[in-house]
Amino acid sequence: MYSHILIATDGSELAQRAVEQGLALAKALNAKVTAITVTEPWTAAVSGEWAVSFPIEEYEKGAAAGAEKILVAVQETAERMGVQCNGVHIKDQYPAEGIVEEAKALGCDLIVMSSHGRRGIAKFMLGSQASRVLAQTTVPLLIVR
């Protein structure tokens, strides 16, 4: 059925549910797993006066440390579940685009990620990365709520 599952996470509690679901599915199918986390470009994360007081080097260090923490947590969960998992940090990308591009580059046949379940004005203003991935990918997508 699926042989290579890409699990996208931002390290949130909700994303952890998607990690667990993706790893359980991978175990049941004996599928390969790649976990990814994506950090946005510095210019998207910091603008205006903050850019002067928060230099790019600091942003990149913080992003790398945050990504490492997220991926180590996923790999620890995978080990507990008896699943082999590789971790990848995608830098300087918007999450949806990074997820779609990495899934394609790695030849993944399923993407697993969470939906943050925003509604109303929050959904309109902030959008949904899951919706964006769904709109951009040709790879099947499992969204965990």
UniProtKB/TrEMBL annotation:
Repeat found in the keyword field: no
Keyword Cytoplasm assigned: yes
Coiled coil: none
Domain UspA: 1-145
Pfam family, one: Usp
InterPro entries named in the record: Rossmann-like_a/b/a_fold (IPR014729), Universal_stress_UspA (IPR006015), UspA (IPR006016)
One cellular component term from this protein's GO annotations in UniProt: cytoplasm
Name the record gives this protein: Universal stress protein
Organism: Hyphomicrobium sulfonivorans
